């Protein structure tokens, strides 16, 4: 759920094309809440160049969306980029135009910690998708996507992309997500995080001078949500080692997380409910979850039930093994890259004859 961030330079040497940072300012944007922000900055990292066919249609653009608390840079880590973006990889930027946006409220896009704090407009997942669509079409000039994929929050937004813009893409791959309203234990843990922050007197209605202690409790819940019991036991096989790792993780994450940003990020999932319109999805879709995902437990049977409403939909639940990492399996591309290869094979592009 919460993603680790790295500088793009860490991975650029392993790719044939260097990443490029770009920003797009959207003026007087009205959020679904009715609130207006005079200037919304949308940041993205791109790799490669768009190709177009003889009719001007973009043929090679790929949109990849990050999880809660992350940014587009999370896909530049070796565990993802060295697999997919390396020369000859499935999404080699020498062939594809890869778009890695920072969702509003995240990364270098506009967010509460920029200065508005709790006066920042309340955004939802549909606002995030709409702003990404405008970034892709208005700023980057892309009028069609070869592939839309995302992890965790980005996976949920992949479902929304598919039903909101059903003719805009050739293929969809949501990872670590479910296509239903967030409820049950998932909602309860999110509500715990929200309450840990907002009920702390140190929060001061968002105008704190130092991070409130409630942020620490919120981060502890996120640690449980995104973890794998098996992997944590391997990393911390003794009581002392477990305490050591927890304290080190707490300290690092507390220093790099803003309470208002996290509050907004978690709260933004409240409008997520793709279930009623799943039948609008046209492009071939492969949903991928892992069996040790605390946030999306397979025993709920939700994917089995809902995929029936997606005309060209398939789903895979990856069995627990030494290669899975709970919810975080979504970013370990080597675990599921063959599923992506299959999706690319079975999703015939609507446009061909790519040209520069």
How does this model look, in words?
This protein has an 8-stranded mixed sheet with strand order 1-2-4-3-5-6-7-8, with helices on both faces. α3 crosses α4, α5 packs antiparallel against α6 and α5 runs antiparallel to α9. The N terminus and C terminus are likely disordered. The two termini are 37 Å apart. The protein has 2 domains: 246 residues, Rossmann fold (3-Layer(aba) Sandwich); 83 residues, Orthogonal Bundle (Rna Polymerase Sigma Factor, Chain: A), CATH 1.10.1740. α10 links the parallel β7 and β8. By secondary structure, it is α/β, with parallel strands linked by helices.
Topology:
Blueprint: H1 9-12, E1 20-30, E2 36-47, E3 61-65, H2 78-84, E4 97-101, H3 125-139, E5 147-151, H4 153-164, E6 172-175, H5 184-198, H6 214-225, H7 229-235, H8 239-256, H9 259-267, E7 285-290, H10 302-306, E8 313-318, H11 333-346
Parallel strand pairs: 3-4, 3-5, 5-6, 6-7, 7-8
Antiparallel strand pairs: 1-2, 2-4
Helix pairs in contact: 3-4, 5-6, 5-9
């Amino acid at each position: 759920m919460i993603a680790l961030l790295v500088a793009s330079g860490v991975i650029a040497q392993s790719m044939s094309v260097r990443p490029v940072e770009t920003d797009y300012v959207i003026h007087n944007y009205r959020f679904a809440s009715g609130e207006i922000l005079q200037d919304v900055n949308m940041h993205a990292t791109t790799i490669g160049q768009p190709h177009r066919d003889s009719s001007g249609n973009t043929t090679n653009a790929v949109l990849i969306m990050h999880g809660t608390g992350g940014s587009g840079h999370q896909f530049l880590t070796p565990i993802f980029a060295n697999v997919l973006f390396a020369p000859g990889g499935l999404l080699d930027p020498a062939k594809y135009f890869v778009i890695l946006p920072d969702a509003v409220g995240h990364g270098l896009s506009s967010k509460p910690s920029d200065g508005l704090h709790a006066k920042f407009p309340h955004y939802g997942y549909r606002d995030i998708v709409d702003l990404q669509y405008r970034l892709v079409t208005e700023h980057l000039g892309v009028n069609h996507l070869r592939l839309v994929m995302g992890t965790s929050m980005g996976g949920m937004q992949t479902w929304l992309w598919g039903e909101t813009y059903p003719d805009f893409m050739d293929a969809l791959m949501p990872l670590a997500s479910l296509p239903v309203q967030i409820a049950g234990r998932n909602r309860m843990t999110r509500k715990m995080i929200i309450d840990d922050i907002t009920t702390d007197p140190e929060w001061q209605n968002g105008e704190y001078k130092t991070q409130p202690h409630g942020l620490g409790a919120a981060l502890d819940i996120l640690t449980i949500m995104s973890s794998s019991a098996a992997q944590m036991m391997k990393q911390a096989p003794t009581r002392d080692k477990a305490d050591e790792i927890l304290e080190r993780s707490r300290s690092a994450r507390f220093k790099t997380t803003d309470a208002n940003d996290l509050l907004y990020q978690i709260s933004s999932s409240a409008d997520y409910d793709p279930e009623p319109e799943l039948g609008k999805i046209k492009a071939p879709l492969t949903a991928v979850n892992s069996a040790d995902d605390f946030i999306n437990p397979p025993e709920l049977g939700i994917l089995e039930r809902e995929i029936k409403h997606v005309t060209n939909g398939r789903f895979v639940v990856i069995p627990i093994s030494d290669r899975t990492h709970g919810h975080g399996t979504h970013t370990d591309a080597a675990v599921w890259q063959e599923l992506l290869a299959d999706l690319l094979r079975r999703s015939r592009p609507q446009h061909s004859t790519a040209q520069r």
